[in-house]
Design a protein that fits this description.
The chain contains four helices and ten strands, in the order βαββββαβαββββα. The chain has helices at 70-76, 117-132, 160-165, 210-226, and strands at 54-63, 80-81, 90-95, 98-103, 108-114, 141-153, 173-174, 183-187, 192-196, 201-207. Strands 2-3-4-5-1-6-10-9-8-7 form a ten-stranded antiparallel β-sheet. The longest helix has 17 residues, at 210-226. It starts with 53 loop residues before the first strand and ends with a helix.
Length: 230
Amino acid sequence: EPRAPRMAAVQGDGADLEPAAPEGSTAVVRAPTPVPTAPAAVDRARHPSGIVPTIQNVVSTVNLACPIDLKKVAMHARNAEYNPKRFTAVIMRIREPKTTALIFASGKLVCTGAKSEADSRDAARKYARIVQKLDFPVKFTDFKVQNIVANCDVRFAIRLEGLAAHESHCHYSSYEPELFPGLIYRHQNPKVVLLIFVSGKVVLTGAKDRQELYTAFENMYNVLQRFRKE
C-alpha cells in the first residue's frame, strides 16, 4: 500500500498531541474533536417571540466638514475608484469592517455594508482617517445611522392575501404578487417597512436603531400568527 506523507510537527503545549510514533513508522495525525457551541439564549423580555432579526446592513452618514478633491483621493488612496461620468462620488472599500463608502466632494460620506451600528461607526472613522492622511482638514461630525436592514424567519407559512385584505391592515399593506412576491407592510410606530413572504421569511428596513426593528417585528409577529397557513 502507498504510505501517507509524513506530517510536520506542530509546536504547542503538548496537551492535544498523540505519543510520538516509532522511528520509521507513519504517524497518524488526528484533528481535535470540535466542541459544539450552544446557541445563545434569547432574552424573552426583549424578544417575546423568541426570534431575533439578524442585521444584514447598516447605512450611516457622516460629515467630514471640509471640501474633498475626489481626484486626489482616487489617485492616492487604496481600494478607491472614481468615474465622474458614471457617479459623482469616490467609491472606497475596506475589509475590516467589510464596508463600502461613498465620498462626495462636499465632504459628505455614506458608509454601507456594516453588520452593526458600532461597526458602521468604526468603518466611517477609518474612511475619515484615510482621507485625513491625504492632507485634508477632516473632522468627524454629525455621524448618524440612516437605515438598518435585517431579516428573520417566523418558521411558518403566511396567508398574504388574507393579511392584505383585512380591514385592520389593508391600509398599511401592498400586495401585488404579479409584480413582487412579497407583501409590503408599512408599520407606523415605529416607522419600519416589512417585506413579508409566504414562506415566513421577513425583511425589515427603514429603522434608525435596532430597538425600532425589534419593536416592529414583535408587533407584526402577533399579527402574522393570526394569518398562519394551516
